[in-house]
Amino acid sequence: MQRGPAYLSNFLLWLLFAQTFADLPMCKESDFHFEYTECDVLGSRWRVAVPNKAETCTGLPDPVKGTQCTFSCSEGEFLNMQSQQCQKCAAGTYSLGTGVAFDEWDSLPTGFITHGVNTNGDNIHADCSNSTWTPKGDYISSNTDECTATLSYAVSLKEPGTIFFEYFYPDYRIYFEFYVQNDQCQSTDYESRGMKISDRNWSQYRVELNSGNNVLYWRTTTYAPLQDSAVKPVLLRNINISGVAYTSECFHCKPGTYSANKGSAHCAPCPADTFSNKGATVCHQCDADKYAEAGSGSCKARPACTKSDYFYTHTPCDSEGKTQHMYKWIEPKICSETIEGAVTLPPSGEKQSCPPCNPGFFITNSSTCEPCTSGFFSNGTACAECPVGTEPVMGFEYKWWNTMPSNMKSFNVRREFSDSSHGTAWEVAGEYVYTTPGEQDTDHLTLMLTVPGYRLPQSMAKASERSKQSRITFVFETTCSADCKFFFLAGYNQWNNDVVETWTGSNRKQSYSYLIQDNSTITFTWTFQRTEEFSMERMYSADVAKIYSIHITNVIGGVASQCRRCALRSATASSACVPCPPGHYMINGTGACKSCPPNTFIRAEQPVGEAACVQCGPNTKRNKAHTECLSDCTLHVHTSEGAPLHYDFSPLANVTGFHSSPRFTNKGLRYFHRFNMGLCGKEGRVPATCMDNVTDSGRDVKGYVCQSTVVPSDIRSQSVVSSQPFLIGDQLIGVTTDTTLNGISSPKWLFPAASSLPDVIFYYMSSETTQACKQGRSATIRLRCDPTVTVKDHIALPSNCSEGTCDGCTFHFLWQSQHACPLCTKHHYKEIVSACIQGIQKTTYVWQQPLQCYGGESLPAQKVSACVTLDFWLKFGVSTGTIAAVLLISVSCYFWKKTRKLQYKYSKLIMSSGGKECDLPTADSCAIMEGEDAEDDLMDLTKKPFFSKIKSFSRERTSDGFDSVPLKSSSSRQQREEEDSDEA
What we know:
Blueprint: H1 4-23, E1 32-36, E2 46-51, E3 64-65, E4 77-80, E5 85-88, E6 93-94, E7 99-102, E8 112-117, E9 134-135, E10 140-141, E11 148-157, E12 161-168, E13 174-181, E14 203-209, E15 212-222, E16 235-242, E17 251-252, E18 257-258, E19 268-269, E20 274-275, E21 284-285, E22 290-291, E23 300-301, E24 310-314, E25 322-329, E26 351-353, E27 361-363, E28 369-371, E29 376-378, E30 383-385, E31 390-398, E32 408-413, E33 426-428, E34 433-435, E35 444-450, E36 470-479, E37 485-493, E38 496-504, E39 507-516, E40 523-529, E41 544-553, E42 559-565, E43 567-568, E44 577-578, E45 584-586, E46 593-595, E47 600-602, E48 613-615, E49 621-622, E50 629-630, E51 634-638, E52 644-648, E53 656-659, E54 663-664, E55 670-677, E56 688-691, E57 700-703, E58 705-712, E59 720-729, E60 731-736, E61 740-741, E62 744-745, E63 760-765, E64 778-785, E65 794-796, E66 810-817, E67 829-833, E68 840-847, E69 863-866, H2 870-911, H3 932-940, H4 946-955, H5 968-983
């Protein structure tokens, strides 16, 4: 049998490898390490030796059966792969057992991925490549712009485990979420992915993980495109994951931490003024001329003390009733007084008498201030009981600052969080409280007041639909040489506050008042920041903010500074105070209640005096509680033409919302202004609501008109994220066609109209005042008739004021709708009558054009009536005309014959006169003699046609207008006279 050339080549190759391995040295323990194979279906695995570098040694240990896949070591232990037994970690190291830990963030640890995307989605082109999570040494920091930054880490768990991490989430304008997905990209079900706002310190979070592949996501998005103040980032540290594969080694403690004992599960931070290196078992003390913050890996040289390192204060009153102006070092003190050029602490001032206590408090024997008991009041010296017929005005009024009130505290918040103590941020100074220099100019020096809640006095009516619980007023002043900012915030805890007002730069001493409408608003915060430009040097420590007084009313558990007259339940001396009946105000100084004029409501915050009665605006009526004026959505207008117009806006009464045109930030974030409005309605109507759903706080505002900023988002369960809500109008002022009402104007040029029909304008006011809008915001909704608009919410903003407002305070809206038209009446249509066809005539009703009405009366149905045709009337007219003509001819003939008889008689009279025309004979008788008729008949029987007689008659008229009639009698008489003359 021939093996061939192939067999020979394989044999030679084997000889070559054998010679090569024969030349390699035997492997030592430092040349290889042990690893486990993948687990089989039975949960078993093998331990194999893997060389640290290929082809460097030979003689590796043979594979042996390893521990079960479910095997794990406890915290503080590691698995010795040589013996496959658990051993304790040495001092200076630590272990989580079956977990991994990430507590060093000088760079992004292996396995972590971070990237930034546009919040609106991939279809928007914006540069978010730099909007990522950034390592900061002890922690990793999120982005603060409007991009979405994601931090992810993939881990495979051999058994169910947990993830634990610490975070600092101080700013509600950022949405921070954590969630887990498996290898099929399916999210693990949790109650909420959104994280809760942190308290002053780091928050902790722990959640269970399933075995298998898990991808962990931390994601932040800023929803504050219009905010001027800097957003505080989310900070993340100490990420611990358990349930992973075995831990074959222990981790060294990072610099600034140590572990003194074996088997440590974590390392402890070094205290202040000490330091440690990596893997330390003990912390070392800094030299006398150096200092270190807690958890530091090195010491720093102490700087020379300056005026910015100390502050002044007033000591509490001693037993002798004395106080002292003194200076204190800012703690912890890091500066040195022994260095050349350093300043020393100024000496304290002389003792002086203490000022009185704040109103509502009294001075005890130990010179301390204590609150007066219920039913008593005080001006700061001694308590006195309120007289009969009066009640205490409860609240807090701070105007003397010897000690910080028990319900107020100050602290320092840095944009980059640190565990070190920053000492006092605000300090008392007798007549005011002021900001101390601080450690950095970018620090937020914060003063916070907390109250338990509010309760209206017994003499005031219960909370109405627009409840006004309390009012806080403070007097402040700022002095700045840089771009400092002074913030006033209100919320329901110290980290869930909304910025109410912001002041920039130096501000003279002034007063500011804020109306509290929500009983959950229990914290008020004042924050001062000298500059936003970070610098290690303090250049603006002399910039300061001062608060001289703070006064808040109707506080539960408050004290009384005065008593006021109230209405009594009865005339007895022990009678309790009661509120006046609805629609009544209390007469000053008497406690008697008097009814307000008709159609007025009572100011909730001022129920005393006739000025408490406020007249309702045009076309509005007060509610039953006499607390506000409402519109029932109907209106009657008398025009100049005289025809009344009737409106019914009920179809528009439900809450309606619309968006402005899109806007973009410099990062390309697309956002809108969302307006919600409830036009009108009776009591019990649903108000318009704008809310903030960035965090779980769910803060909202309610009224007639409100606005919020919405951002389309595809990273959350909501399609849009709403933030920064505020009220535009919570009180209806009036409804009219006039363009000005109570100082609010709605110029016609904002919305030019082509129709002569007047627009109906609703006027609103807001009780919230701002620095820019000292009288509060206002709104006008102009309703314009357009029967062609079928959609209900066709609302527009002014073309030259795309934000809806031209001055930032008064907002204008145009609402075009068919429901904004007056109700149709009989004046809006006309009738058209058709011709009579075959005895039938139709009457049709049509709308007058252009149509300017909707609803109301409908067009009447077509009418059909019987009629007579034109042929009948034509025949009737011809017949009637013929008959009339015959009658006319007959009458003419009759009178013509009568005329002839008169002419005959006249002729006879002429003949009987003897030829003298001017001397007529006296008639013997006016009667016709016998035989005259026969003669007349003989004369008339002249043989001539009828028309010839008429013609001849017409030609015989003389020039003088009389008819010339030939008579026979005259001819006979002339002949007789001639015969007589011949005989003579």
